[in-house]
Structures are given as structure tokens and as C-alpha cells.
Amino acid sequence: MSVSIPFNKPFLTGKETEYIEKAVRTGKISGNGYFTQECQKWFCDRYGFLKTLLATSCTDALEMCAILSEVKPGDEVIVPSYTFVSTALAFVREGADIVFADSYPDNPNIDADAVEGLITERTKAIVPVHYAGVSCDMDKLRSLADKYSLLLIEDAAQGIDSHYTSPLTGKRSPLGSIGDLAAFSFHETKNIISGEGGMLAINNDRFIRRSEIIWEKGTNRAEFFRGEVNKYGWVDTGSSFLPSEVIAAFLMAQCESVDNIQSRRKAIWERYYQRLAPVSAKGCFNMPVIPDYAENNAHMFYIVCNGLEERSALMRHLKEYGILAVSHYLSLHKSEYYKDKYKGGELPNCDRFADSLLRLPLFYELTDEQVDYICDTVEEYFG
């Protein structure tokens, strides 16, 4: 059977083309115009970031983090092995050695209790990834970063509109607001989208001026446009990280609809959970775990099968019924590029998720009837 339920379908609010036309009519579509500045202000106002800079991708935002962290050859950066390659690659490009950390046994996030044992005198930064928009244990990671004078850089690619609540203080903080720096993604598979796109969030004021220079190709051009200097020039390293106004205009329409988008995605997630919990209770697979300190932003719904063979068989079964379910990351410490460089031990939890985690379709226009059909098909497979 051909696929009738895709894994993802980008959602359009209806205002994207209107805003793109408005951007074109302003006569400035090259970036850092009206919509760029409006988006950046929106994120700061809603989530309390000190400063934000839109980027062409989350990869670019992470590369800006790596430049700002001033890592150099010989420095070490602690990164979960179960993540997308960009989390590590950004720091590899600056010459850093990657120290890969394992996941928790019950969820794919970095095992915060194991991180301290990975810190050496060469460690420069810890980079947690909020997998599926579910927060890492940020109290423990923030405490370690402060104790050893390390940078804490959040890969919040999947974490928009999700929060961490500190068990110590009770404070509820948006993901991306706890680390010194954070990177977000607006790829078409994310909750709010711009096709390709990302954002750097800055929460430590010592990075504000330099981040803007790096963003603008190593120049103080942004200061010039604000009238703070009478000419601009090349003052630092950097690249062309800022997106066009067309991308920012598209993203602004999404930002304005975030509450509506999130409400529907959470309803879909909850329907999956309620329907599949009885099957999981029989030992057929494990369900997502949301720690007490974390929230669920409904970025994805996944199940963890009992091994690679069973996951592959379930994927084939779903595809036979027109449903596209997909696996996710391979463990980076076993990747073709890094396996010969890796000097650490086994990371069994990362490997288990790499072999067993299966993502089910989740997008705004997925109907309740389609969710039920997917769940019925999963139930049928397990008899």
C-alpha cells in the first residue's frame, strides 16, 4: 500500500504568504529587516531570553555557540551520543574533542548523574539536548557548569515552548533560557517552522556584542545600522548566519499561532498515549517518560520497541497499512566519522534507543481518526 499517512506534514497558518508579500514590498529582503527584528523581539518577550538572533538553521546557531565558546584544539566538549550530528559537529569544526555521554535508561536525554565523571581539566562546555522537547535535568547540569566554570549550551532544537521546573526553587523556566547560550530549530519537522531556519538565544550578557558581530560576517554592521558607529568593518571571525526576510516573515506567522499549534499537537500526543498505554502495559514496548521537572511540548510521539528486529518488523507492518513511522539517530560515538576518534567506554542506553526507538506520525492536521487508525494498526501487530 502507498503511504496515506506521512510522518510529517508542514502546517500553514494562512498568513505566511501575506507576510512574505509584505516583506517583499518593503524593498528589503536580505535579512535583519522588519520581520527579523519582530521575530527576535517576540521570542525575547515570550520566553525571557536576553537576546535572540535568527539563523538560517539550528546548525548555524550551534556553530555560533561554538565560536562564542572559544573552544580550540585540545579542548573537550561533553555531548550526548544520542543526538543529531550538528550538536557535535559545530564544536568539531572549531577543533574540539567530543566526549560523548550516555542517555538515561528510561529516556533519551543525557544522563546528568554521569556527566561529572566525564569532566577533565580540558573540558570547556556541556551541551545537553532536550530530546523530544522534554527537558534535561538542568539543575544538575547548571550546578556542574558553575562548579567547574564551564559553559552550559542548550541544544533546544526540539524544545520550543517547553519548560523546566526546578525541584530546588520551584522556578519554571523556558527551555533555552537556562544555559549561557541555546540553539533552536525551525525546520519543517518542528512545532513552529520556516522550512529551514534556526535561532541563537543568548542569556549571558558577555556574549551579546560578539554574537551580533559573528552573525554579521565578522563585522560591526548591526551597530552601524543602529547608528552606534559611523562606519563598519571587519572586526572578528564570523559568517553569513542571518536568514532572509522571507524566512523571517514565514516564521512570524507561525509565532503568532504558536498557542493554537501547541494545543492541537498536545491533543494528538495525549490521544496516542491513552490509546497505546494498555498495549505498553503488556510489555510490548515502552512509552515516553516525562520526568517531574519537565514538560511535554508534543514535539514527537515515540515508542521504544524490544529491539532492532521488532522495530523493523513494526515499521514494515505500519507501512503495509500506509503509515510512515521512522527511526531516529544512530549513536554518534559509533558513527563512521567519529568511531576511530572515540576513546570512551560503551554507551548502552544510547545504543538501545538507536536500535529501538520508533517515531509515529505527529503533525497539526493529523486527525483523531488517523491517530486511532495508527494505534489500531500497532495493536494489530502485537495481537
From TrEMBL:
Biological processes, Gene Ontology terms: polysaccharide biosynthetic process
The UniProt record lists the keyword Cell membrane: no
EC number of this enzyme: 2.6.1.59
Annotated positions of the N6-(pyridoxal phosphate)lysine modification: 190
Top-level taxon in the UniProt lineage: Bacteria
One Pfam family matching this protein: DegT_DnrJ_EryC1
CDD domains: AHBA_syn
MF terms (GO), sorted A to Z: dTDP-4-amino-4,6-dideoxygalactose transaminase activity; pyridoxal phosphate binding
Keyword terms of this UniProt record: Aminotransferase, Pyridoxal phosphate, Transferase
Keyword Magnesium carried by entry: no
Transmembrane segments: none
Residues at the catalytic site: 190
Family membership: Belongs to the DegT/DnrJ/EryC1 family.
Protein name per the record: dTDP-4-amino-4,6-dideoxygalactose transaminase
Taxonomic lineage from the root: Bacteria, Pseudomonadati, Bacteroidota, Bacteroidia, Bacteroidales
